[in-house]
Amino acid sequence: MLTHPSTKYAAFKPVNLPDRTWPNKTITTAPTWLSTDLRDGNQALIEPMDITRKLRLFRTLINIGFKEIEIGFPSASQTEFDFARHLIEHNLIPDDVTVQVLTPARSNLIHRTFEALKGVKQAIVHVYNATAPTFRQVVFNLDKPGTLRLATEAATLIQQLAHQNRDTHWRFQYSPEVFTSTELPFAKAICNAVLGIWQPTPAAKAIINLPASVEVSTPNIFADQVEWMHRHLDYREAVVLCVHPHNDRGCSIAAAELGQMAGAQRVEGCLFGNGERTGNVDLVTLAMNLYTQGIAPGLDFSHMDNIIRVAEDCTQLPIHPRHPYAGELVFTAFSGSHQDAIKKGFAARHPDDIWAVPYLPMDPADVGRSYESVVRVNSQSGKGGVAFLLERDYGIILPRKLQIEFSRLVQAAVEASGTEITAQTIWQLFCREYCQEIGTFQYLSHQSIQLDSGCVQLSATLDHRDKKLAIAATGNGPINAFIKALNMAEPLNYLGRIQIHHYEERSLKNSQPNRQANSQPNDPPNDHLDKQSGSESQALALIEISTDQGSYFGLGIHHNIVTASFQALISALNRQPTSPNQSCLQPAAYGNDRNN
Fold first, then answer.
1. Confidence at 375, pLDDT banded by 50, 70, 90
2. Quick check: 342 and 359 in contact, CB under 8 A?
3. Whole-prediction pTM value?
4. Which residue in 431, 442, 481, 439 sits closest to 459, CA to CA?
5. DSSP letters along 168-207, please?
6. CA-based max dimension of the chain
7. Looking at per-residue confidence, does 547 or 186 come out higher?
8. I need a labelling partner for 426 at 20 to 30 A (CA). Which of 72, 119, 393, 569 fits?
C-alpha cells in the first residue's frame, strides 16, 4: 500500500558539497532563454504541429523576444526537416535570432541534420547521448568508455561538417542526457572530453546543457549537481552552462532558479510548461518571477491572452485556470476577506508606489489583464467584493452600513442560484432594491425658484397612495426644501420627522463594456436599467434617511441631479415596511421586475 514504506524505491543520494555557495546567491539578471516549444514541446503532443502551426508559434516566440529557438529535430521526420528548410529558404529567421536543432549522437542523423541547416546564417547544433547507468546498461548496452566514445565521435563529426559549411556561423551544444541520474565524475569526464574536441574560446563559446531529463531529486540536490559541474568543467570561461529541467516532481521552477544560483547561465524550456510527461520548465513563470522581483526578463508577456490563444491553438492543449500569471483565475478573489483587502489596497495605492496590493503579487495590467476579473462574487464572498464591483464598474461608493446591508441580499441571491454572480447582476439587484421610484410614494414633478437670499423656493407634486399630493417649502437648497416640504405635509405626519444621514451624488459610470465582458446567459434582462447605466449623462444620488420607523437607503438615477436626489428620497421612503414585522430587504427574486 502507498501508505506504508516501500523497498521498491530509494531516496536519491545527496551530493557531498559542504562548501556549496548557491544558498547565499541571488538572481540579479535574466538567463539566456532557449525555447524548446517547437521541438521538445512538439514531440510531446498527441498531434504534433504541422508546418503552418509551427510557423505561427515560431513568429509568436520571436515577438515575445526569444533570441534562441530550438526549431525541431530534423532527422526525426520529414515534417521536422521540411520546417527547417522552410524557415531557411523563405528567409524567415531574423538576423538576431539563432535557431537550434537537436540530433542524437549518431553519424547518419548528424549528416541529415546538417542537410536541413544548409544555407542558414547562424545555428546551434545540439547533440546528446544518454549517460545515466540505467540507460548505459539497459537501453544501449554500453559501458562508460563506449558511452564516452559515442559522444566524442559525434562531437568530432559535427566539427568536421561545420568546417565544410563555413558560410554559417556555427555554435555547438552537448547534453549528457539524464544528467540528474548520471554519476557526477562521469558527467564531468564526458563533457570535458567533448569540450576538448571543440576547444571553445570566450569569443566562440560552447554550450554544456545539464538536462533533468527525469526529475529525480529535490531542487537543492539539483543545484548541488549544477554547482559541482560549474566548478569542474574545463574551458569554463568559454562555456555557457545551461539547464533543462523537467517537472516530474513538480519542482522544475525551483530547480531552474536554484540552478541559476549554482552557476547556470542559460535555461531551456517551454511556454506554460509544455513537454513530455509532466512537461518542461515553464518559461512564462520563470520570466514573470524575475519581473515581479524588479528584474527585466528580456521576454515580453504584456499581451498574455494573445500568447495563450496561440499556444492553445497550436498545441491543442488548454492552459489551466490556476496557471501562474496566465490562468483565467489567478488574479481573482472569491473570498470575502480577500476581496475586502484587495479593495482597500487599490484605494490606498498611488500610481508611483511600489506594487503592494494584498493578495495580488503583481499588477494584472502588466500582462494585459483588466481589473474586471480581480474580484468575483460567489457564496464565499462578502461585502468587500460586492462594494468593489459596484465602485469599479458603476462608480458608486457604498457606505459601510449599506455594504453590510446589501451584501446580505447578494448572498441570498447567490445561494439561491448556486452560481457565481456577475457585476451586472449585482448592479441590477442593487437598483431593484434601492431604486424603488414607484410604491407608496411616486415623484411626479417639481418647480424651483432661486431667491435673492440664496434660498430655494420649491413646489413639488407626488403620488401618495394613488392620490396626488402637492407640497411646497423654502430651504437653503432644493434637497433641504424638499425635506421641509415632506415634513410639513399633513398627510405624511405618520412618518414622523424625516432626516438625511448620508447623501452622495456623482455621475453614473459608463459600465456597458464591463457588463458585456462579465455577462452570463442567465443574467436577468432589464432594458430600463441597462439604458440608464449605459449613459454617461446620467446622474446618481444615494441617500440615507431616517423616519420614526427606522433608517433607509434610497437610490435615484436621472439626467438631472436634483430630480435624481428627489427620486432617491422617494425610493428610501418606499423601502419602509408597510407593516411593523416586514423587513425592507425583501425584494423580488432577481430576474423579476423590481416593482413587483
1. low
2. yes
3. 0.72
4. 481
5. SEEEEEEEEESGGGS-HHHHHHHHHHHHHHH--BTTB-EE
6. 109
7. 186
8. 569
